[in-house]
Design brief:
A hairpin with a 2-residue loop joins strand 6 and strand 7. The protein has 298 residues and is of the alpha+beta class. The radius of gyration is 20 Å and the shape is globular. The longest helix is centred in the middle third of the chain and has 20 residues. The relative contact order is 0.13. The chain has two domains: 98 residues, Phosphorylase Kinase, domain 1 (2-Layer Sandwich), CATH 3.30.200; 183 residues, Alpha-Beta Complex (Aminoglycoside 3'-phosphotransferase, Chain: A, domain 2). Strands 1-2-3-5-4 form a five-stranded antiparallel β-sheet, sandwiched between helices.
Amino acid sequence: MSFFSEKEIIQLCIEKLANIYGSPARLLSSQAIGGGCINHAVRISTTAGDFFLKWNATAPTDMFLKEAAGLNEMCLANSSFLIIPKVIWSKEVDDLPGLLLLEYLQPAIKTSGFDEHLGRGIAQLHRKTATACGFYHPNYCGTTLQDNTWTENWPEFYTQRRIWALIQHIKASRGMSSEDLKIYEKLVVRMPELLSHQTVPSLIHGDLWSGNYMYTTKGPALIDPACYYADREMELGMMQLFGGFSVQVWDAYQQEFPLQEGWNKRIHLYQLYHVLNHCLLFGGSYGWQAMQIAKEYL
């Protein structure tokens, strides 16, 4: 793929905006903003409005298409408390970089009551359900491909399509001792017993750490999803793993959609997926952390 400058990527979007809105669009200004650790990102102000644009020439080919699909799915939850940015355009990596063009959400200065709204909004998102666990297609958590093949049984889905899939990836790319592998094999055998509580597949954001929500002038917004239908406690594991969600968020969630008894005893087990994913992506001490969680449930 040829190299394309920021100016050329923006111009590509200006031309697309003209096609979408049926009238010429002109760039007024652009400003670099945070786009996460792997993407380029800018705010572009145009005669058609303000937009958030991010792009990547080396990302998985369809990564932005799958992110756009997740945003659109979350919109269908019709939460009265959450803002989901509108997808304007997404494209895959080809001769040009992959990109995602969204409505621009202005960060809020006054955020009184937003913690409560965020908690209630996440709970409302989780009330959107499906008849099986999974999603309509694979997608990505970071750059890790997620197998979302529809599966009726939640323990089977979590065991095979999340934990065991990552174990195999880590073993192949980073190596794993036979002793550690045996521990994970024992955990897999125990999983149906550990996850014997009743579950209904709920729509989850899938990667909900503090960097993937923002407080905007319209209210709390969710961004950068890795959506699928799962036990909703899966979401709470990631929320708790790195912190960043206040007591008010958790209390509001419980008021809006009370959790089953024992959810906090399963929280580390659900964090295991994200710790293993960080091990796969970054290495370091995440492998040790994942092993401590596995041993906790044996």
